[in-house]
Automatic annotation (TrEMBL):
GO terms for molecular function: iron ion binding; xanthine dehydrogenase activity. Keywords: Oxidoreductase. Residues 32-138 form the Aldehyde oxidase/xanthine dehydrogenase a/b hammerhead domain. Its EC number is 1.17.1.4. This is Putative xanthine dehydrogenase YagR molybdenum-binding subunit YagR. It is an enzyme of class 1 (oxidoreductase). InterPro entries: Ald_Oxase/Xan_DH_a/b, Ald_Oxase/Xan_DH_a/b_sf, Ald_Oxase/xanthine_DH-like, AldOxase/xan_DH_MoCoBD1, AldOxase/xan_DH_MoCoBD2, AldOxase/xan_DH_Mopterin-bd_sf, PaoC-like. Pfam families: Ald_Xan_dh_C, MoCoBD_1, MoCoBD_2. The lineage of its organism: Bacteria, Pseudomonadati, Pseudomonadota, Alphaproteobacteria, Hyphomicrobiales. The gene is yagR2. It comes from the Bacteria. PANTHER family: ALDEHYDE OXIDOREDUCTASE MOLYBDENUM-BINDING SUBUNIT PAOC, XANTHINE DEHYDROGENASE.
Amino acid sequence: MKFDTPATTNPIDQLKVVGQPIHRIDGPLKTTGKAVYAYEWHDPNTPYAYGYVVGSAIAKGRIRSMHVTAALDAPGVIAVVTSDRVGDLKKGKYNTAKLFGGTAIQHYHQAIAVVVAETFEQARAAAQLVKVDYVEEAGAFDLAAAKDNAVKPKDGEPDSAAGDFDAAFESAPVKFDQTYTTPDQSHAMMEPHASIAAWNGDELTVWTSSQMIDWWRTDLATTIGIDKEKVHIMSPFIGGGFGVKLFLRADAVLAALAAREAKRPVKVALPRPFLMNNTTHRPATIQRIRIGAGRDGKITAIAHESWSGDLPGGGVEVAVQQTRLLYAGENRMTAMRLATLDLPEGNAMRAPGEAPGMMALEIAIDEMAERLGLDPVEFRIINDTQVDPEKPERPFSHRDLVGCLRTGAERFGWQDRNKRPRSRREGNWLVGTGVASAFRNNLVLPSGARVRLDREGIVTVETDMTDIGTGSYTIIAQTAAEMLGVPVEKVAVSLGDSRFPVSSGSGGQFGGNCSTAGVYAACAKLREAVAQKLGFNSSDDLVFAGGEVRSGDRRMPLMEASGAEGLVAEDRIEFGKLTETHQQSTFGAHFVEVGVDVATGETRIRRMLAVCAAGRILNPITARSQVIGAMTMGVGGALSEELVVDKERGFFVNHDLAAYEVPVHADIPHQEVIFLDETDPMSSPMKAKGIAELGLCGVAAAVANAIYNATGVRVRDYPITLDKLIDRLPDVA
């Protein structure tokens, strides 16, 4: 199905099932422990072996020699797989560093060997016996030091401009110019990277934890040098990803190589300390923002420059992209520069680009509002735009940032806010409130599905779409149920298998909208097949409801169309040029109240509100869960999350959950989410857009702005830890 014109009235608009607060159909499986995750697949008749990864102890250099005899002689050891054994492996399309290093070391903890043994404990013990002689080389590990040597990235659109920023900024009555920094941050999902690999002749089956099945399948085949058609990937349940499982990772490659060497299935899980240095992370940024405005508060000039770093061949953190679209202003400039660093690979982490970019931009907007003497909410509203500011001929498909801000201000009690910082105190607590806009682009990718109707009236949906805890199973079931007029209980959903049609996958908050649109396309084709099978002229005037097919006075049971063999339809959604003619984005507003202890500088979140405008909400329960999880993640980004770089040795020091601090339930007592009632017919037949990452973008800045309102202390370097506050707080008395 080609989606190249705005959606009109269709079966989804009935909203009998779609849009309803249906509890997750996979919930009982997960709460009872029946959902099987990658490392848990187990056949009692299969003699599994276990692999333990040996990671590089240096960040840059080469291996002079590796001594594995002691490991091979250790109890239970089956094999030690090194680059000498497997040869020089290729690199997948989506990988920056090699997942199994050879002689050259590209980053700390790069996998250089895997020890395979009868038990996990034996493999772990033997891995400590592998001795490696290195030739260490000097590396670059400090973004600030490498900033002046950063270059314009070759890919994408690193720079943009409209009007004459320099002249407009120079002549602006009110000017603002500040620099902000965000640190390296780590994914810290519950399920680590884990895989099981098994060979059957020259065919490979891998149970793994992957957000994007087809990307993994393609890159795994490329890496180990076999035909893609001989690779079978399965990933039906995933314990979180946040972007780190978008791309093929070392556990899958090492499991495949180890299984081939050991001649039996092998399980490989990356220990938690490996996740920070061996996989990917959100790279640090340095961001300079300049804003010029008239006395009336209208922005006349805005510029956003950002610097980030990555390994050679890597990409820039696109932290300026929201600034190109969020606020009006005729004279504009954005630029991104990439420094070469020898730290582990920087790549996608929940809302790449907008998440760190909004951390800076939305503080700058508050600071500019203060200079103008304007309320921060009103300043944002004054500078709203309904067109792409860089391309005014290109309107937004649907944009209600103003509605989010006004609704949030009313619900949160913004009118009661103390305008003067450090003016509200409750005992030892300085109390303040902050706001930030939320923004995330709406991305679309092709997505396919197969739908089968059997003689019992059961509808089965098959797609390689994944569920990383987001509710994919449920919204896909709701889509099929709505399209075919059956209850959700009559829909069986099978996900995460490379034998199924290729979907959009889970990432970039495009998964929900695109995967359900693909199911919509397959169901539309099945509706047509049902019409033909039952002798109706067309499916256009048919009503599918209550397990029946109706046209005028004629009605027939849906299951009669199945026949003895069942009725199957397969299709995919392919998006046309609507994303080119109209800018598709999602919008929101975050409001936060904090308390800061006047004696210690400790910050406590008191309450949070998110108002989101993101098209049709397919399931308010699962959508709310996504937003409150994102809000929590935003608090972590604001107050605690930072990968500390050892700038001499080139690794992240706090590479485990004991030292990498993330918020928990007790840290955030009250969260509220409001979804504005809207649809976007230009996004897809579902008229939905993404929601999960919107809930993160802007949260950290809202926290920072609330801290300033509470204390009068402006911190521009994240995370806002107490040491950055305590010396600037008022006397306790």
